[in-house]
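Exam revision sheet. Question 4 asks you to relate a sequence to its structure. Input first:
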Amino acid sequence: MAAHQEKKPSEERKHRSTQNDTQTAQVQWGRAWEVDWFSLASILFLLMFAPFIVYYFIMSCDQYQCSLIDPLIDLFTGNKHLSDIWNKTPTLTYRAAGIYTLWVAFQVFLYVFIPDFCHKFLPGYVGGVQDGAVTPAGAVNKYEINGLQAWIITHVLWFANAYYFHWFSPTIIFDNWIPLLWCANVLGYAVSTFAMIKSYFFPTSAKDCKFTGNFFYDYMMGIEFNPRIGKWFDFKLFFNGRPGIVAWTLINLSYAAKQQELYGQVTNSMILVNVLQGIYVLDFFWNEAWYLKTIDICHDHFGWYLGWGDCVWLPYLYTLQGLYLVYHPVQLCTANAIGILVLGLIGYYIFRMTNHQKDLFRRTNGNCKIWGKKPEYIECSYMSVDGTKYYSKLMTSGFWGWARHFNYTGDLMGSLAYCLTCGFEHILPYFYIVYMTILLTHRCIRDEHRCFSKYGKDWKRYTAAVPYRLIPGIF
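Answer key, structure tokens:
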């Protein structure tokens, strides 16, 4: 161990380039080993109330024209009982079950059986077989990156049906939205439960499992790091990207079709929602290989949080703006429409360029130019589990010199733009910006706690050089 610590700088730097990711993963691996009372209380709250929150939002649109207050008023004044609202809610149907089963099966087929060909003719796109990050047990999983291809095939078939084959109405998703909610819940709970059972009896990698001994926490946050079936079906990558995110743009298109059916036109606000959220979805799949290095893949285990969340929470609550505009069509004036579009595009530009700067800096080990200049950085050191000293570089140039998480700032600007398309008559469409603000702020704090534990006093030097988290001069 002493010999490792006394390596010459050149040797040490070379050594860290091959083992840095492994040691970092072992030191800062994923979720907690032990569960404190606050974490347990939060877990129990989400397990009990998150499904109800989704139902309440969708029911409010279906029965109360998207008012979140009127159902409560009816209940408190005695005008209605919970049974009245529940009895009026559409039930699970064979039609919805068939639609959902075919949808998931089709996405599994595209994911597992159709190797990526887009990378062969799209310049700059990284697809096909790619290596993931090093797992805590030292494994490097391989992934078939073909999400963009699946998105393209799915949408080509959607438009071919809408304009030529006419096998089903483009409004099919909206028309079966609540029955499909029950199907999504069944899949979300089924895959989460299966993943937990699998981790006990036949894990893909036993060394990459983490048990706390608390059933609820393990069920929520997951035990197995990268559960797989066979060589290529990776639970985390599939459920993070497919079927929820591929469906995101289809859901919005179905909302637009319903608007056309009901009112004879598609409003500019609905077009903005489809365009801005479509850009985000396409960006996700264009950069799917980069996504393998993000916190969802590198640190999170697969449990109810990802399984149910990707099946239910994401497709139902991330698309509230389009759903609202079906019930309340908003035709924005030209100035407002342009302003919202500009806000969304600037937010996307900041989000993408900030991530690009970080990726470029990492790939070149700082031997690059950011905004035309060699980037400045703070060199940090940390100790691995075997006592070896390693070095990392934290960039303080470009957008990363403005704030420590400026990519999240761009994400929040885009999120606000989605909500602004809906006007100000109801608060329901603004749930998304509230949720994203809480989510990303919590992620900031969680990331920085991990970095402080890893880098110690060097992290304090970095935060002194870049004092703001999200908004320069404010926070």
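Marking note for examiners. The longest strand covers residues 128-134.
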